[in-house]
Amino acid sequence: MADEQTSAVATDESRIDAKVTCEDAGPALKRLTIEISESAIAEQMETTYDQLTEEAVIPGFRKGKAPRGLVERRFGSSIKSDVKNQLLATAYQQAIEDEGLDVLSDPEIPGIEELEVPESGPMSFTAEVEVTPDIDLPAFDSLEVAKTQREVTDEDVSEEIENLQRRFGQMTAGGESVEEGDFVWVEASVYEGHGPAEDAEPLQHLPGTYIMVNGEKAEYKGHVAGIVVSDMGKRLLEKKVGDEERIEMTGPASHEDEKVRDQPITIDLKIERIERMQPAPIETLMAQSGATDEDDLRSKVREAAEQRLEREQQQAQHKQILDQLHEKVELDLPEKISGRQAGRLLQRKAMELAYQGVPQEEIQTRVAELREASESESKHQLKQFFLIDKASKDLEIEVSDQELNGRIAMIAMQQGRRPEKLRADMQQRGEIEQLFLQIREQKTLDKILEQAKVTEEEAKD
């Protein structure tokens, strides 16, 4: 391989004795072959036994006074497992530091479950890890950006109030059969292949989830389990509670699960409830916003719409910058986007939409549609991540805890939730890192925009 190099690692108090070979395993992918010496294994084994002997409580002996041989017989297998995990983690971390790798994710270690600490001799393992590729960015003052001037109209305000009424409305019982615009509560299961056996285990089972039934205006598209079904509306119209629907299709091209991506799948639906959204009255919006009357409400809505328009104009300029960076920079990417990469890209898009104030139902729809994107579009998004990552490091962009908390508070306000509850939910779903990356991306693009050539133009009718 072109990038192959081997290094012998000396020991000190914080290191272990190991040999590392680093080679290219593909675009933005490195393969580390690591050999841990017999002496390093023995030293870690001795340290672990000493620690356990001091802490072990064995009947008939005072704490820390049990014979070494008894401790070995009782805890030998668990000690070897602990030693293996400690050695692998230390050797891997040491290797990436010595090789100067800027890693993007946790490594994949083939055969890690079967790997055992040998009775004698060294222990070897191989780790593959995604890394940031080498990138040469153009001078930022060579970029040209157009800023479109536009104002919020009375019609925009009225439309936004209608959107808020729907967002803060309440579900009520629907009719006997499904109509356009209804929300259908279903039990959903996703299976591998077409026509699964009756006892087949689902890849995903949702005991209760809403499906919005779109009509001709939305081309009858719908989504369930994060998967777009192009004719969902046609399938569900006029269905009744208790009816079932089987959908056989090919999984989305950019789905996170390899068993779903571009594979034949079956989605089974059973209708449990039919509900209809009752828009919230103006008085509810006035109470929630603290408006004194309808004119005050419209004023507050206009102010929020102007802030969102400003963000949209900023995002349009950011897109122009990104388009030019994509065009000017050649970059080798992994041959196939992994499920882990696809998941990260989808999470980041959801964060971006939430920041824009997009309603949760629409966010779910947009993310589901992204799963339908082609492999080339996924690679486009991955390339964008690498470009921004490089630019943010060159510009020394940092994100503070205060900025993270401020963004969470803004999203919580838009969704009518408590910031602390939203943060807890985001931590549970592993979304805090993606929010950090989103803020970093926006700060990076803002900084690039300061150096770019910006011209203003009037909005086209």
UniProtKB/TrEMBL annotation:
Domain notes: Consists of 3 domains; the N-terminus binds the ribosome, the middle domain has PPIase activity, while the C-terminus has intrinsic chaperone activity on its own.
GO CC annotation terms, alphabetical: cytoplasm
Subcellular localization, as worded in the UniProt entry: Cytoplasm
NCBIfam families: tig
Its job: Involved in protein export. Acts as a chaperone by maintaining the newly synthesized protein in an open conformation. Functions as a peptidyl-prolyl cis-trans isomerase.
EC number: 5.2.1.8
Coiled coil, from the record: 297-324
Similarity annotation: Belongs to the FKBP-type PPIase family. Tig subfamily.
Catalytic reaction annotation: [protein]-peptidylproline (omega=180) = [protein]-peptidylproline (omega=0)
Record's keyword annotation contains Isomerase: yes
HAMAP family tied to this protein: Trigger_factor_Tig (MF_00303)
Protein name listed in UniProt: Trigger factor
Pfam families: Trigger_C, Trigger_N
Entry keyword annotation includes Isomerase: yes
GO MF assignments: peptidyl-prolyl cis-trans isomerase activity; protein folding chaperone; ribosome binding
Trigger factor C-terminal domain sequence ranges: 295-450
InterPro entries per UniProt: PPIase_dom_sf, Trig_fac, Trigger_fac_C, Trigger_fac_C_sf, Trigger_fac_ribosome-bd_bac, Trigger_fac_ribosome-bd_sf, Trigger_fact/SurA_dom_sf
One BP annotation, GO: cell division
EC category: isomerase
Ranges for domain Trigger factor ribosome-binding bacterial: 19-164
The entry's keywords: Cell cycle, Cell division, Chaperone, Coiled coil, Cytoplasm, Isomerase, Rotamase
